[in-house]
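anyone seen this seq b4? input:
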Amino acid sequence: MDKEIMWLIVGFTGQALFSARFLIQWLASEREKRSIIPVLFWYFSIFGGTTLFIYALHKQDPVFIFGQGTGLLIYCRNLYFVIRTKNALQGEEVQLAKASLHDQST
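predicted toks r here
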């Protein structure tokens, strides 16, 4: 396979992943009957953005490199916030369960 064809496949794959995040968000919002951003949205943003960033590096396009690079930082930061919040909520649930068990035993 021609090298340039391979890079086009990489670019289109990245674009498909990146675009799929909006389909994921739309379907999740329809299911909930309100606007939400599911965690999967951020994973698709990161995977698609990374693939497009690699493609931009290959093309040596500074505008595309800058755009995808800064976007990746934001997507990773948002995913970090989601995971941190989830872990904090799980920690609170554990503390509540322990307190409930302690109250029942006294």
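The chain has one domain: 3-104. The chain has a mean pLDDT of 91. kinda curious what u guys think
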